[in-house]
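pasting for the record
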Amino acid sequence: MSFTLVAGSSVALAAETPIRLVALGDSLTQGYGLPQDEGFVPQLQAWLDAQGVKVEVINAGVSGDTTAGGLARMDWTLDEQVDAMLVTLGGNDLLRGLNPATSKENLSGILARLEREGIPAMLAGLPAPGNYGPEFQLAFERMYIDLAGQYDVPLYPNFMQPMTDKADAGASFADLMQDDHIHPNAEGVALIVEGIGPEVLEFLRALEEQPS
């Protein structure tokens, strides 16, 4: 896996100042329905702090945002220094049954922009339920794999892995969800962070190993 850091990133790492990791996403990233310190970004920040990583995780989650929305706000998202980006979009596309080909095109636009800017990216995917049909399910899940390969970025396949694990075991995961049955509660977020945290850590450590 190879990364090209922007000048600001190299300076930040050389000076041992925190890496600015922007989490670009929707309500799952933004922390919908949760106290400020219990959302995904603050819990991920706390987890990474505990690992001794000098990183500032920036919350760029917008509730209700689709992949198109994420692409549309790239200009102002990149208006301040961004050393790396975690892209966690696709949930609202899935809820609305949007064409996976369109979602893929939008995510490709985001990753292509980051590639042009020399900003390392990590992609987090989501599983698709079967209610839209097997073709939709395959296309949606495949788009993350294809894009990770195309842009040579690390992929965490299932942001909601703890919930999937319980479902696969034949157990209810209602205890990890808010009353809307869409958004995780604080305990659910903690498990999500436990799952994705090591992958984010590896991603950040790879950046530190890059020559300035």
